[in-house]
Amino acid sequence: GENVEQHPSTLSVQEGDSAVIKCTYSDSASNYFPWYKQELGKGPQLIIDIRSNVGEKKDQRIAVTLNKTAKHFSLHITETQPEDSAVYFCAAAPGTGRRALTFGSGTRLQVQP
Amino acid sequence: GAGVSQSPSNKVTEKGKDVELRCDPISGHTALYWYRQSLGQGLEFLIYFQGNSAPDKSGLPSDRFSAERTGGSVSTLTIQRTQQEDSAVYLCASSLGQSYTFGSGTRLTVV
How many Cβ contacts (< 8 angstroms) between chains A and B? Predict the structure, then answer.
């Protein structure tokens, strides 16, 4: 089955700096790659996603890049703010078989004011 | 409703008791998923429903875990004879396509 690895597990940046979180996946048939943000005591919330026919997608301060050949994708947050502090999860959806997303182990991002 | 609703939000139970966790998905969402999140860990897949059927229940950790969905809507996750290792946050999500909407979860503590 699909295996998703996520790095780093923790990341601390100064307010205004950029943050990058990286994930790799194992199933070359995977075709959908979302990113979720989880704040304390809440469920994960979708912040951006990308499909396998696209290499990059941006939404204001957030961008995601996908390298299908290398089977890795990354989340980029620019001009970080304290409210960006949360746990971020990447995920991959299989192209066939099981429909459920496989999640990475999460990255705890702390933005220091 | 406007979002995915899970109840109870918190549940403390004694080891050996049975518990039922409920999920109310977004109206019209045909797919429903249960995940488990242990303290500080990632999301572990448990079971997936499409309508009322469960094409994939491969993530259920043991036969003490079961789930059902009725009317293509509400789902119940049942854990029998709870053990301390069952302590976790149980998250439910629903979707129409590939994008999930999660509930806030049920925090289960087995003492």
Answer: 56
